[in-house]
Write a structure and sequence with these properties.
This protein is about 10% helix and about 30% strand. The protein has 4 helices and 19 strands. It has a 6-stranded parallel sheet with strand order 1-4-7-10-13-16. It has a 6-stranded parallel sheet with strand order 2-5-8-11-14-17, with no helix packed on it. It starts with 6 loop residues before the first strand and ends in a 26-residue tail after the last helix. The protein is mainly beta.
């Protein structure tokens, strides 16, 4: 996937990336100009799990939403992640919003790193010019990009290797590790906004054994301002084009 201002919503994506690693059910990477994209209200589940043998740089899991290599300005809102290795991965990018997602039995809820200051610093040393070339290809320092995304014209002069402005708020994570980061020498308290997440507390799902992850009326998540997900709208539906649905397991 790539481009700007796309909305990806109400999909049921499961059992993908079963024979690969370092991949995602949703993926973007290596372009500062991919901004304004929204991934919302999707059911992402049962993704491939693999050991590190597939990867040359330390991980090979399958992600739910994979914002690879400096992707920024993306909203990840109201998705249901079940049995994903990493539900959301922010790979060095800035200005991403992760809000009101439900993460169940995922190995890791959210990962954030500062790879531009570490193993991927050659993207900013002049050795690898991919980011600059793709920026120049769409003339992103000028309208319409500069008008729609005011941060873009000065992005290479504003510590582009530092992941700034990532906001992770009002999410639920249960049955796995909530969050990890590799921020080099950056202070996470001043680099990330992480607030009002329900972690390691029973969110009171209606029937988790049957994968009914609606919240009961007395759920502590609702009291924290976390909203119900539109689970009933995720996936295929019957209309005049599709008159029946495939059987589910």
């Amino acid at each position: 996937q790539g481009g700007t201002d796309h909305i990806v919503e109400y999909n049921d994506i499961g059992r993908v990336c079963m024979e690969t690693g370092d991949a995602g059910a949703f993926y973007m990477g290596r372009d500062f100009t991919y901004r304004g994209n929204i991934v919302r209200y999707n059911y992402l589940h049962d993704l491939g799990r693999y050991e590190d043998k597939f990867s040359s740089h330390g991980f090979s899991e399958t992600m739910g939403v994979y914002l690879d290599d400096f992707i920024g300005g993306t909203t990840v809102l109201g998705n249901l992640f079940v049995k994903s290795n990493r539900a959301v991965m922010i790979g060095g990018g800035s200005d991403n919003l992760v809000e009101n997602n439900v993460m169940v039995d995922c190995k890791l809820g959210v990962w954030v790193d500062a790879r531009g200051l570490g193993w991927a610093k050659n993207y900013f040393s002049g050795e690898i010019t991919t980011l600059q070339e793709r920026f120049n290809a769409v003339n992103a320092a000028n309208p319409p990009y500069s008008v729609r995304y005011p941060r873009l014209p000065g992005i290479f002069a504003d510590e582009p290797a530092v992941p700034k402005g990532n906001v992770i708020v009002r999410n639920i994570c249960t049955g796995g590790t909530w969050m990890q980061w590799a921020l080099e020498k950056l202070d996470p308290a001043t680099t990330l906004v992480v607030e009002d997440n329900l972690i390691d507390t029973d969110p009171l799902f209606v029937n988790p054994a049957a994968r009914d992850y609606r919240l009961k009326p007395d759920s502590p998540a609702l009291a924290m301002g976390i909203n119900q997900l539109p689970i009933e709208k995720m996936g295929l539906y019957i209309d005049r084009y599709r008159t029946s649905l495939p059987a589910t397991e």
